[in-house]
Amino acid sequence: MTDYKIPTAVEKAVVTRIYAQADEAHWPHLQDADRTRLYREWTEDPEIGGRLLDFVGQRANIRPWLKDCPMKEYERARRGEGKYAKYVTRPAATLEQMVAATFGPGWEVIPETTQQKPMRARIREVGTEDEEQHFVAGTAANLKHLVWPAILDRSTGETWPWTICVVDPFRAPVSPEKKEEHRQMAEFLGVQVVYFNEM
User: Fold this and answer.
1) Do residues 174 and 166 lie in contact, with contact meaning Cβ atoms separated by under 8 Å?
2) Residue 161 class from Cβ within 10 Å (0-12 exposed, 13-18 middle, 19+ buried)?
3) Cβ(5)–Cβ(43) under 8 Å?
4) Which residues contact 67 (CB under 8 A, 6 or more apart)?
5) How far apart are CA 197 and CA 82, in angstroms?
6) Helix or strand or coil: residue 92?
């Protein structure tokens, strides 16, 4: 992706606007055709594509920039991570909030253990040093990416427990059939799968 010199004020205006519209459209649950329609609308919108045009060279570069920069980071930004998080008007639960909802308020993310892609960290009960475990969170659509760090970990002989937290949105809940697939996979790998219900 070309590193365009987009002024901060322009980037802020554009990203704030597309994030608000993505939120209204329930972006994580949209079909590809609906996402394509939104990209087209954004490209043609004078307040989005029109503002970017002077900095990306030509109209054909608007959509790739939107897709590869702010929208590629949309989920992370919603959860308070990355350079675009400051442009989110309705944030989603953070990793810390998901840990607290899953294990209770007596659990914490161990400082400086958070990683991205997928979003994960080591966690422990407050006041303990030895009982650490891994916690990874994301959508059911990205399950293979959530499982991969646990597989790599197991392949090197690591034995700390893994909890895979699947975000279970109110608008598009994980089906019972999918949950059964997850249960079988978790049993096979020796990990725990939990669900975080998100409005």
Assistant:
1) yes
2) middle
3) no
4) 39
5) 23
6) coil
Beta strands in 100-143 (DSSP E): 107-109, 119-125, 133-139
Instruction: Compute how many other C-beta atoms are within 10 angstroms of the C-beta atom of residue 141.
Output: 13
| Beta carbons within 8 Å of 44's beta carbon, 6+ residues apart | none
Tokens standing for residue 102: 């899953």
Rounded Cα gap, residues 5 and 124, in angstroms: 42
The two tokens of residue 49 are 């594509």
Per-residue pLDDT of the chain (199 residues; tens, 9 = 90+): 568 999 999 999 999 999 999 999 989 888 899 999 999 999 999 999 999 999 999 999 999 999 999 999 998 899 988 899 999 998 999 999 999 999 999 999 999 999 988 999 999 999 887 789 999 999 898 899 999 999 999 899 888 999 999 999 888 899 999 999 999 999 999 999 999 998 7
